[in-house]
Amino acid sequence: xxxxxxxxxxxxxxxxxxxxxxxxxxxxxxxxxxxxxxxxxxxxxxxxxxxxxxxxxxxxxxxxxxxxxxxxxxxxxxxxxxxxxxxxxxxxxxxxxxxxxxxxxxxxxxxxxxxxxxxxxxxxxxxxxxxxxxxxxxxxxxxxxxxxxxxxxxxxxxxxxxxxxxxxxxxxxxxxxxxxxxxx
Length: 184
Description:
Low-confidence stretches: 10-21
Largest sheet: 8 strands, antiparallel, barrel
Oligomer: single chain
Number of strands: 9
Strand order of the largest sheet: 1-2-3-4-5-6-7-9
């Protein structure tokens, strides 16, 4: 009787531990730590895939209603009614971009990526005042400071460096998903 109970415990422990041990995350470089599903302080979700052989990865952002309201609530932002409406329509929708690694410190925390927008209706793209409605390929450089524990990432602000402020510019790691389930 005891041996059956012990065998059951061992099998149960293996069923629980094998999936956990099998999905170890690579934390060796800023790029490897960046791959996965992140969420920012206003609820926008970021999904980074691993770059392919051609060095392009997929970046998908699902904009929260709160972020869209924050974008549009900026009194200094001068947007046409048409741009404002398109940005409002972006809340809760997923937008796919491509990204390539421009530079990284392999043993450090810094990485710079070049984002290539794929959708002219992407709220982040339209939020940039210099972008017009006619479609042109737009590339934007973003710098990140990806902490070595892989749990937090901060935007690296030009001339100020890595601003470690959870309230302003942090992405918090959620899981290893590289795409929202509904748009795979």
